[in-house]
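Late entry, written up from scratch paper. The run itself happened at the end of the previous shift, but nothing got recorded in the book at the time, so transcribing now.
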Amino acid sequence: MPPYSTRKALSSDLNFLTQVHHTTLKQYVEKIWHWEESIQDEFVKREFETGRIEIIQAGNTDFGYLHLAKTEEKVQIVNILILPEHQGKGLGTTIIKDLIAKTKSANMTLELGVFKINTKAKSLYEKLGFKTFNETKTHYQMRI
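Output as recorded:
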């Protein structure tokens, strides 16, 4: 059994989702664009309203969230956000490896976007086998 589980995010999780989003992304958004709390709050709310957010848990502890978008051919990791105090413990790597295995067994592609300035995440994705297939001014688009 993996060292984590997921559950569908509920409206009662909105504050947690906002905390995770702000804590994990503010350092990048501030450098690339401009951080405006109300805009980011609205972004989290719209993301939640897609109905595709899963809370990631280890034991009884919520430590992040996963947002996937699926089509018949591919799975897009829209966001995988893990609170800093839970990073560096292999949980994110395990989740991504599980997603790679699931998409490969279904003959699907797994894609994601990563901020160009988030070199640590890009390095992890490359180590896991992702290749850059496109880039924008702010992001690398990667797939496996």
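The helical segments are 14-32, 37-49, 91-105, 119-127.
(Scratch paper discarded after transcription.)
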